[in-house]
Amino acid sequence: LKATLTLDKNYQIDKVDDRIYGSFIEHLGRAVYGGIYEPGHPEADEQGFRKDVIELVKELNVPIIRYPGGNMVSAYNWEDGIGPKEERPRRLELAWRTIETNEVGTNEFVDWAKKVGAEVMMAVNLGTRGIDAARNLLEYTNHPGGTYWSDLRRSHGYEEPHNIKTWCLGNEMDGPWQIGHKTAYEYGRIANETGKAMKLVDPTIELVACGSSSSEMPTFPEYEATTLDLAYDQIDYISLHQYYGNRSNDTPNFLAKNLTMDHFIKSVIATCDYIKAKRRSKKTIKLSFDEWNVWYHSNDADKQIEPWTIAPPQLEDHYNFEDALLIGSLLITFLKHADRVKMAAMAQLVNVIAPIMTENEGRSWKQTIFYPYMHASVYGRGISLKPILSSPKYDSREFTDVPYIDAGAVYNEENEEVTIFLVNKHLESAMPMDIDLRSFEGYELVEHIELVSDDLKAVNTADHQAVAPQQNTHSKLDGGILTAHLSKASWNVIRLR
Length: 497
Ligand code: AHR
Prior knowledge:
The chain is of the alpha/beta class and 497 residues long. 25% of the residues lie in helices and 24% in strands. The chain has 11 helices and 26 strands. It has helices spanning 51-60, 106-116, 131-142, 148-155, 184-201, 222-231, 251-255, 258-278, 299-303, 321-336, 370-379, and strands at residues 3-6, 12-15, 22-24, 64-67, 91-93, 98-100, 119-124, 166-169, 206-209, 237-244, 286-294, 341-346, 356-358, 364-366, 383-385, 388-390, 393-394, 402-403, 405-412, 417-424, 431-436, 445-451, 470-471, 476-478, 481-486, 490-496. The protein has an 8-stranded parallel barrel with strand order 3-4-7-8-9-10-11-12, surrounded by 6 helices. β8, α5 (184-201) and β9 (206-209) form a beta-alpha-beta unit. The two termini are 29 Å apart. The site of alpha-L-arabinofuranose has 10 residues, from loops. The site of alpha-L-arabinofuranose (AHR) has 10 residues, from loops. It comes from Amphibacillus xylanus (strain ATCC 51415 / DSM 6626 / JCM 7361 / LMG 17667 / NBRC 15112 / Ep01). Homohexamer; trimer of dimers. Pathway: Glycan metabolism. It catalyses: Hydrolysis of terminal non-reducing alpha-L-arabinofuranoside residues in alpha-L-arabinosides. It is an enzyme of class 3 (hydrolase).
């Protein structure tokens, strides 16, 4: 067994858009209440935001955060979340069947996003509402002043506009579970008309239209094709969502699921370009993979949750080591599509299917998946290089010819750094690798970080970080050839400077 990889500074895919390392906070479970926001917690700041959580989010270097939903946005009245807190209504939150107190709303979230150094990707409600609510919200957030909604914002203590640049036209409108679910035709029309009105309010914004909630949806890819055809001139991005799981406890098959993501991305690119050709357009639609993660561990527990409570522990997946490996492969998949995938959001960020967990009134801690996400976000900024990879392969239940090795690499010209991301999916054997780096003359090996565990099902807890990065000291760089030993079942980050 042996793998080889060639990287050349001239074999470039594209500049990585930092926003592929985005994430998502929905008003769901304990993401907001008891997650990012917990007044009374010893770590709470003057606005009630937990400083310990802010620090963990900053470690991930998250550039953009989608908000406020998710399914929740499709029945959300954004006006409920502005103005004096004591006057805000409590509402039945229909998507997750909880009580929404509206203590946190648009302005508070924008404040929090600033604290963590992220932009906001705001979603509008195209389920129960439409053009009017969307254009009013945009006027509230982005118009400088002198009009009803912008002056209302100023009266709420926000003199300057928030200038939110990126907007999602609804959420998963293809899904029958979505409140106000729409056929592709219905959605394409409302997306176009809402987008048109929003760009009249602020022509500098960028719009993301819903695509499919997963590549398994029966309406995929026709939903994309129809939506794009009806709203092509208004939209800039089409959204993709997909969650992965290991329900049948078949790890080799589970670890191959980045191939599903790869296929999904390629199919959406093809659909976008078909409509581009059909419309004789010069504009190229970009992809926003704005919900992705492993999600299945908490499915049964969620069925036991009583409706109509505040911030119940919904969607609290406890991630294990093999989940972290797949997350690594999914991140590599984004790098390999850096020319078209310009935004992505790990769903979600805190407590709800999340890399960061909190205890109510207690500690916060890092799940296994925190680490590959952090490594990619921190070191994966620059130009994505085309990996010329030769890897032994395996077959699994659903996939054939699965490379044991996944490889992605980023060249940061400014900092004169190269970072190579590798997953070894072989569960029994280490993989020797030769990496040809001869075009990077004068570069030296800084470190080889690895995430390994003898137990694929190992999880982290508040008390014990069973899965955490360590150094692999076996790699050597000699004459431009890096020889590495990738431990069995491992996530690897090889840094050169
Ligand atoms: O992220 C959890 C949920 O998954 C979101 O609310 C929804 O958009 C998707 O189905």
